[in-house]
Automatic annotation (TrEMBL):
It comes from Anaeramoeba flamelloides. This is Cell number regulator 2. It comes from the Eukaryota. InterPro entries: PLAC_motif_containing.
Length: 68
């Protein structure tokens, strides 16, 4: 989760990121904005709630694909 946030901010992941992890919901919103995806607040709430591990993996994959 911390690595995804640092990557979308285009900076290195630090120990502060690991100690103060941002909510995954806000990272997903930032990814949608950065890559021009349609906003889907309800979907993001549903996915980042009970399926936060899935959301983290999806976000990491999307960031990796877009950085090539």
């Amino acid at each position: 989760m911390s690595k995804n946030k640092a990557d979308i901010d285009e900076r290195s992941c630090t120990i502060c990121d690991c100690l103060c992890m941002p909510p995954e919901y806000f990272t997903r919103l930032q990814i949608r904005s950065a890559y021009g995806f349609e906003e889907s607040n309800l979907y993001d709430c549903i996915v980042t709630g009970p399926c936060v591990t899935c959301a983290i993996c999806q976000d990491a994959r999307e960031i990796k694909l877009r950085r090539k």
